[in-house]
Amino acid sequence: MNVLQSGSLPVRVEQDVVLARQFVRKLASEHGMRLVDLTKLVTAVSELARNTVVYGGGGDMDWSVLDRMGRVGLSMLFRDEGPGIADTRLALTDGWTSGSGMGLGLTGARRLVDEFELDTAPGQGTRITITRWI
Model pTM? Predict the structure, then answer.
């Protein structure tokens, strides 16, 4: 797998959530992602960026345009140094919510993308990587 482009955006305040969503929408559109897939990716980005701000105390979204044997994908890594997720099993349970977000939670975001990876531990922050292939 090759990285064609990459960068990072701060996700520290609510306005950064809007900017991350707009950036990913533009990036996906530029790479020819279909509207339905683009909408799913942007929705997942919105949820995870908001979680980064609200629960992680702010962090960053690292983004990459990937090439896997001629197939293009968009990958986002949300990382924070917040309290981490104490019970990942519970956090990945359908219908569970810890607050007043969009109601998607991690399970909803996971369903909207092709690949989802969660790395977290109490006191060690959270890293969530999502990828959607075009």
Answer: 0.92
